[in-house]
Design goal:
mainly beta; two-stranded antiparallel sheet
Length: about 50
């Protein structure tokens, strides 16, 4: 079992399709996450 933390940059843009076309704001941001990995052993799990 493993625990993995990841982080990285992101870019969000707000450009609506309706009547508010003058709203074109963009943001740079940082995102992070945490993953839990569990491996299946070869002997414990088989496809038939």
């Amino acid at each position: 079992m493993g625990l993995v933390f990841h982080a990285g940059p992101g870019y969000s843009s707000i450009k609506p399709l309706g009547f508010y076309k003058e709203n074109n704001t963009s943001f740079l941001n940082v995102m992070g996450g945490l993953e839990l990995h569990k491996a299946l052993s070869e002997n414990g799990f088989r496809f038939c």
